[in-house]
């Protein structure tokens, strides 16, 4: 089947589409390529025992199916020989992010207490105070009318402050983590160059060194934080959490605790500023924030893909999947499946029954999803209310990443003028999405 992509080239088969998706151009804007892949089905064979999943129903079911797991050590040995010598790959592989039950279940239970709905709801006042303080700083920096970088001034410091508070990381150390996390998360990409792997290894090493010191500090002086709880679980019973697992999970909890939310805030702000009528409704009626955030997560997911391996023969999307089949689950494509969401390329905060797969599903559903949602639900109405003249000062610079989709920089101005309201984005007779 032949099809033309958004840039005028021809996609002849799924392998060509995959090559485009992994190119710098395809990573910056993967959505046209997703549609080319969707032309081939909901589950697309792209190589021997290798498949791409674009359908919502198929992605949701596969992520929940116990017959699929994440890459185990045996497969890693085949695909990435020498992975144990890579601090980045080894660190991610020893965390709950890349382990299967029963190890995954054991580690996840130890951290889950910090992310219960009750504890997250109790953080709302903290998030509001942090967001207000950051907006004050943005206003102070922009007094002369100069643009400010939204990513550096708000989208990064808000979620990093919250996750650092949960982990017990001193506020003075927060600026260290952005580069370390940016370097480390390169290892989550479908392809990584030797230079990128070297950067990822450097980030992993520096993060593990940092947490080694923090763990030692918590042993000397325990505190009421998640780091202390995990240290005590290790020290009381090493079978519950090994030393490697302790450090690896602290690294992943920190990085995952702000990377996804940072991208959600940056991606979401661009969408809202491009739909001023919808933004005006949210500014005036912040109770609609939950519905807005779900649609923002669906429309431009901060996490675009994950992967699974079948442990026994299965069949999805009309395709037989032998045991050992490797699947790339394209969350960003599933979130725009027209079979699940009519007119999926249209941002519609009044869209009913929005359940994006941006945080995954099943056993590996993101532990901090509720916290990310809370931060976005607080941040967007507050930004729009306190900065009515907020506007983009340029297109921003996208990170050349596919797995974690977001901006490296996003210049904005925070003038005093009210946001221009048009009829765009507001259906006739609509008053807002269901809270």
From TrEMBL:
<dbReference type="GO" id="GO:0016705">
    <property type="term" value="F:oxidoreductase activity, acting on paired donors, with incorporation or reduction of molecular oxygen"/>
</dbReference>
<keyword id="KW-0479">Metal-binding</keyword>
<keyword id="KW-0045">Antibiotic biosynthesis</keyword>
<keyword id="KW-0560">Oxidoreductase</keyword>
<dbReference type="GO" id="GO:0017000">
    <property type="term" value="P:antibiotic biosynthetic process"/>
</dbReference>
<dbReference type="InterPro" id="IPR002397">
    <property type="entry name" value="Cyt_P450_B"/>
</dbReference>
<dbReference type="InterPro" id="IPR017972">
    <property type="entry name" value="Cyt_P450_CS"/>
</dbReference>
<comment type="similarity">
    <text>Belongs to the cytochrome P450 family.</text>
</comment>
<dbReference type="GO" id="GO:0020037">
    <property type="term" value="F:heme binding"/>
</dbReference>
<dbReference type="Pfam" id="PF00067">
    <property type="entry name" value="p450"/>
</dbReference>
<keyword id="KW-0408">Iron</keyword>
<protein>
    <submittedName>
        <fullName>Cytochrome P450</fullName>
    </submittedName>
</protein>
<dbReference type="InterPro" id="IPR036396">
    <property type="entry name" value="Cyt_P450_sf"/>
</dbReference>
<keyword id="KW-0503">Monooxygenase</keyword>
<comment type="pathway">
    <text>Antibiotic biosynthesis; mycinamicin biosynthesis.</text>
</comment>
<keyword id="KW-0349">Heme</keyword>
<keyword id="KW-0521">NADP</keyword>
<dbReference type="InterPro" id="IPR001128">
    <property type="entry name" value="Cyt_P450"/>
</dbReference>
<dbReference type="GO" id="GO:0005506">
    <property type="term" value="F:iron ion binding"/>
</dbReference>
<dbReference type="GO" id="GO:0004497">
    <property type="term" value="F:monooxygenase activity"/>
</dbReference>
